[in-house]
Specification:
Strand content of chain B: under 5%
Number of helices of chain A: 15
Helix content of chain A: over 70%
Chains: A mainly alpha, B mainly alpha, C alpha+beta
Largest sheet of chain A: none
Number of helices of chain B: 14
Order of helices and strands of chain B: HHHHHHHHHHHHHH
Shape of chain B: globular
Shape of chain A: globular
Structural class of chain A: mainly alpha
Helix content of chain B: over 70%
Radius of gyration of chain A: 25 Å
Distance between the termini of chain A: 62 Å
Oligomer: heterotrimer
CATH architecture of the largest domain in chain B: Orthogonal Bundle
Structural class of chain B: mainly alpha
Chain lengths: 304, 300, 358
């Protein structure tokens, strides 16, 4: 019976002139055409220059550029700094999200709005402002300097800037998940005799883990690529406080486009790997739909 | 009605439920630590911006803003905004419309392409245009021969700005339009609306807050972009400096209070952005809760 | 306006949603498309509206082939399952939409809106937003909006699906009365057979993208075309059994006046739960002895389960009878009784069927 029907359908498909599926909504060709042309001209063609530029390089030259001591020092600072900053952001971001979701206090709404400041303030302004605060004469830099701790114009300054730009990512990914976390679960744990600490580590934290991880990765990726705020505070000493984006910039200013491209390729691979890991983790977790929506929202904030 | 009440009850319980409330010392300890952290990391830098800007008095502050180079930087920035933002609004709507309303192959790939400017460092964003339009490249060389300078000139600034800001509107609209679905638009068509009428009377009014917010984010970023523009601009004072680049130039000449004076303009823009964001989010939220109420009622 | 659907086929990927469907909706009638989910009923409705394009076949309104006409020129009123009211417009603006896009004059629009508001009993709600209305009110606004431009046909997708039982009852009768008043050709989709039978002039039963049967409600109920329709439109017991040279045998029941077959054939018997009667005495072969294993009063009827004694397996039949009957016969759970079958449909494994009343 079913076979018969399929055979009939196929026959019908062959003999009768078939209409193609038509969505009744207008503007598909126009909107997709504009969209693809835009992406092609603005993204694909420019990005392909990296490939062409690298392809023109000798393999030996490429290796020499990306493994030069100055470059290796820059990777170390960029990657370790971004890792450390993302970790700090996870700890404080989780705390901020917790405080904002669970407690009521004076000016909570204002604090909530201020969290997004690093998204809205241009990086150059953030750079000079952070330098002023943490510099030798700044309100925080001066007392620390007296204690022998140098922040601005040192590696610590790079870390401060990275924490600043990455903070909102963690808060904004964790916050909605925490809001959606049903109190019932916690109450159930409490009635079963679990203490607060145990409930937090056994019940709440595992639930927040995917969001926290997403926040960590986004914050890491952002810190890795950050340029504007860091150049002001770091002092830009080769081998010591020079980050990869700055090294690329330096090479561009010296018209060493090949070298810059090689380093950019390394950076690109690193950030795409991070995004890829984030996406695959997201696909695996059950709360994918929720956290994916968050990522969309949060990413739309992202500033370079 | 009942589930709605349940939800309110739950919301209230979140803050007062005895079984799960944190002890007072922990509560205030966490709040205090958070406020200190926020103050140190976010608030203090802004206070310092204004303090330094007005350190030499209001006349000097105004002088810094009236400086011809500042005015020209504002002009360059506005030019970039005026070109990049409308292009990106149209792109954002076109992308969201085609992605949320139609099926086509490689949709995920297109979505990933929209994310590219978020994933790459701004320095690299600038670099790819130097590679494409620089004097050494095929296209750049040909353009130069025909008297068109892209890199180290205004066109480069505009293109780089467009690149780093194009995802904002699309990224705001896609989730909004996805959750709204196409039923209202289809209803408009069955009632005899032309595509233009549908767009004007149904689609746009329903996405206006998302569109506004996306536009604001896009504008804020276009004004504030530093890294990418820095690569392509060439830092020609009074010609190819945008506001953030001008801040850098003045700062590097040790005119600190002048640099911070210009920076206050950018901070003010950031505050406006956050303000509009809060309003837009509030409107979206009340709309979403209305929708939830409606589905709850309808489900009964 | 008469609607003719001729050999319409449509597949989503490899899933055939509609398979050479032929349906005729006579002018001015109220027709229900009834079927389980995935039967293609909503797809068919959307094809009529022009919201989906059929791969083959034709949709004809009156004498005009509208298959290639876009949605907006078809002049259909479509009520979406979740209403799809314009969230940012008031009730009055929603109703006026179809007139506004046709550039109707202000006075004309106002008059028509007022007319529909009173017809739909929406008085006093004109300035409310859809989010401030109850489910039933939204449904009526959606209907008013669809009717405002005087559509040639009215199409409703699960019109009562999202409402609670009470409101649904009221709206059903109200829709019937409304249709009697305005007489616009109407097609609605439902998965609820009671709804279809109560409201519609004609019912079209769809399954797996094919029309199983179409006709007047009574006709379908009394003369179901096949086992699927029989199963779908009533509360039926399905008994496994066989046909041999003496008659058909099912769980201790023998029906002599039906088929006879020289070589035994496997068959199924379909008996509606209301077509079985309890009696104290064992009179003929169309009844069987057994025990009432369960009884529950639901308002004016009693729903029971009956286990035939002779049946080898643990088969039990649903039997529904009136409360009066239950009381007058002094029945109770555990009682040993005879169940007499008043009407049965037998479908042999292959093709043919029979309908007998006793």
């Amino acid at each position: 019976m079913n076979m018969e029907r399929t055979a009939q359908m196929t026959a019908a498909k062959i003999t009768v002139c078939q209409r193609t599926h038509r969505n009744p909504l207008p503007g598909f060709k126009l909107s997709l055409g504009y969209c693809l042309a835009y992406l092609g001209l603005l993204v694909l063609i420019p990005l392909s220059t990296i490939v062409f530029e690298t392809a023109a390089m000798e393999w030996r030259d490429f290796i020499a550029v990306v493994t030069a001591p100055r470059a290796v020092a820059a990777y170390g600072l960029s990657f370790l700094g971004a890792l450390l900053a993302a970790t700090i952001n996870c700890i404080f971001g989780l705390m901020l999200a917790w405080v904002l979701v669970r407690y009521n206090f004076f000016a909570k709404k204002l604090i909530d709005a201020i969290i997004d400041l690093p998204f809205a303030v241009p990086t150059a302004v953030a750079g000079i402002a952070l330098t002023a605060v943490w510099g030798p004469n700044g309100p925080l830099g001066e007392p620390l300097g007296r204690a022998g701790i140098l922040v601005a114009y040192a590696r610590l300054g790079v870390l401060v800037a990275m924490v600043f730009v990455g903070l909102p990512f963690v808060v904004r990914t964790v916050q909605p998940v925490l809001e959606g976390l049903s109190v019932d679960v916690e109450e159930a744990a409490a009635t079963l005799g679990a203490g607060r600490v145990r409930t937090f580590f056994k019940v709440i934290l595992p639930h927040l883990a995917p969001a926290l991880f997403t926040g960590f990765a986004l914050s890491f990726a952002r810190a890795l690529g950050e340029y504007g705020s860091i150049v002001f505070i770091s002092g830009n000493m080769p081998h010591r406080t020079e980050i990869v984006p700055l090294l690329i910039m330096t090479k561009l200013e010296q018209f060493d486009y090949r070298g810059a491209t090689a380093l950019a390729l390394v950076m690109l691979l690193a950030s795409f790997t991070v995004l890829f890991i984030v996406n695959s983790v997201q696909w695996k977790t059950k709360h994918r739909s929720v956290s994916f929506a968050n990522v969309l929202r949060v990413r739309s904030f992202l500033k370079g | 009605m009942k589930p709605a009440m349940d939800m309110t009850a739950r919301a209230i319980r979140t803050n007062s439920s005895k079984g799960v409330s944190d002890p007072l010392w922990l509560r205030w300890g966490l709040i205090f630590t958070s406020l200190c952290f926020i103050f140190m990391v976010l608030i203090l830098p802004l206070v310092v911006v204004f303090q330094t800007a007005f350190r030499d008095g209001v006349p000097n502050y105004l002088n810094a803003l009236m400086d011809p180079d500042t005015v020209s930087a504002i002009k360059v920035t506005l030019l970039a905004v005026v070109i990049a933002v409308p292009l990106n609004i149209v792109f954002g709507f076109a992308a969201a419309w085609s992605i949320t309303r139609f099926d086509f192959p490689f949709k995920r790939f297109v979505l990933s392409l929209i994310d590219v400017p978020f994933a790459v460092s701004p320095v690299i964003s600038g670099m790819i245009f130097v590679l494409l339009f620089g004097a050494n490249s095929v296209i750049g060389g040909w353009l130069l021969e025909n008297g068109i300078k892209v890199i180290f000139a205004l066109p480069g600034i505009v293109i780089a700005t467009t690149f780093v800001t194009f995802p904002f509107v699309a990224r705001e609209l896609i989730p909004v339009m996805q959750s709204q679905g196409a039923d209202m638009e289809l209803a408009a068509l069955t009632l005899g609306a032309s595509p233009w009428q549908m767009l004007r009377m149904v689609t746009l009014p329903n996405i206006k807050w998302g569109l506004l917010y996306g536009t604001i984010l896009c504008t804020a970023r276009a004004v504030g972009e530093f890294g990418a523009v820095s690569v392509v601009s060439g830092h020609i004072r009074g010609e190819t400096n945008t506001l953030p680049l001008h801040v850098e130039v003045v700062y590097n000449e040790y005119h600190f209070s002048a640099a911070f004076a210009v920076a206050t303009l950018l901070v003010a823009m950031a505050f406006i952005t956050l303000g509009i964001k809060s309003v837009a989010e509030f409107m979206e939220k009340s709309r979403a809760s209305e929708n939830r109420k409606r589905t709850l009622e309808a489900a009964q | 306006m008469k609607i003719d659907i001729r050999k319409v086929s449509k597949a989503f990927g490899y899933f055939p949603a509609l398979d050479a469907v032929d349906v005729t909706v006579p002018s001015g009638e109220l027709v229900a498309l009834l079927g389980p989910s995935g039967s293609g009923k909503t797809t068919l409705l959307r094809v009529i509206a022009g919201l989906e394009t059929p791969e083959t076949g034709h949709v004809i309104f009156g004498e005009t082939d509208v298959t290639d006409h876009p949605v907006r020129t078809r002049n259909v009123g479509f009520v979406f399952q979740h209403y799809a009211l314009f969230q940012h417009m008031t009730v009055a603006q929603n109703i006026a939409f179809g007139l506004r896009v046709r550039k109707a004059s202000r006075a004309e629009t106002a008059e028509r809106v007022a007319e529909l508001v009173s017809l739909m009993q929406l008085d006093g709600l004109e300035r409310r937003l859809p989010s401030e209305l109850s489910g039933g009110q939204r449904q009526r606004v959606a209907l008013a909006r669809a009717l405002a431009p005087n559509p040639k046909v009215l199409l409703l997708d699960e019109p009562f699906g999202a409402l609670d039982a009470r409101v649904r009852q009221d709206l059903r009768r109200w829709l019937r009365r409304l249709h009697n008043d305005i007489h616009v050709t109407t097609v609605f989709v439902t998965h609820d057979q009671e709804e279809a039978f109560e409201v519609a002039d004609r019912v079209v039963i769809l399954n797996n993208g094919r029309v199983e049967q179409s006709g007047a409600p009574d006709d379908i109920f009394d003369h179901p075309a096949n086992a699927f329709v029989m199963d779908f439109v009533g509360n039926v017991n399905v008994l496994d059994g066989m046909i041999d040279h003496r008659g058909s045998h099912f769980c201790g029941l023998t029906f002599k006046d039906t088929y006879k077959a020289d070589i035994p054939v496997v068959a199924k018997a379909y008996i509606r739960s209301g077509d079985i009667e309890y009696c104290r005495s064992h009179d003929d072969s169309q009844s069987t002895k057994g025990i009432i294993t369960y009884a529950r009063r639901v308002g004016p009827v009693v729903r029971t389960l009956f286990s035939p004694k002779d049946s080898s397996d643990a088969a039990s039949m649903e039997v529904e009878l009136s409360l009066d009957d239950w009381r007058s016969k002094n029945l109770k759970v555990g009682a040993e009784v005879n169940a007499k079958v008043k009407r049965v449909r037998i479908f042999p494994e292959r093709g043919e069927y029979d309908n007998i009343s006793f």
